[in-house]
TrEMBL record:
Keywords: DNA-binding, Repressor, Transcription, Transcription regulation. Residues 35-54 bind DNA. Residues 12-72 form the HTH tetR-type domain. Gene3D superfamilies: Tetracycline Repressor, domain 2. Signal peptide: none annotated. SUPFAM superfamilies: Homeodomain-like (SSF46689), Tetracyclin repressor-like, C-terminal domain (SSF48498). This is TetR/AcrR family transcriptional regulator. Pfam families: TetR_C_6, TetR_N. The lineage of its organism: Bacteria, Bacillati, Actinomycetota, Actinomycetes, Kitasatosporales. The keyword Repressor applies. The keyword DNA-binding applies.
Amino acid sequence: MGNKPGRPKNQTARREALVDAAGRAIAERGLEGLRIKDIAAEAGMSAGSVLYYYPEMDELVLEVHRGAVERYLAARQGAADGATGAVARLRALVGSGLPGGSGDAVHGLLFELHRRADRSSGHATLMASLFAREVALYATVLEVGAAVGEFTLTEPVADLARNLVALEDGYGLHIVSRNAELTPDVARRLLLGYARTVTGCPEL
């Protein structure tokens, strides 16, 4: 009986370890052909243990997607919160939304998981939620910048925020796909150029 209070916590830790291991396996091998034994090997567990906690592979992959979205958004929010002033916050957001290179594990994982959206309502919901929350991050910075007179916006805030996120996604896909003509530095320069145009702020 003395072990019972610790059991739920232990199970939670094992589930988290499996989600992390599955994320690594997906990033390394892709979703196609992903096998239980690949995840078990990453987690240092038996295949039976994986199936005990996640009898359905789809449930585990959905948890990986959910966790990846939350970590990515937290990092972007942290980048913005760490800057002072609308100009610095907008520059920080642009920098946080691009892959660091073709081998960027976070963006590679998210792009791989987003591929499930056309076949799964759960993955589609996560993808739509990520987009909406990224748009909200940009919208907040743009609204504040306009309110304090740092930005003179050329279009409605929501439209500008959506365009910034869509540009990031498009550039990001090229970066992780090893398009040599679109490096992270080039993508950042292009995004900041767009931001300068639509905010009227030469300091960006």
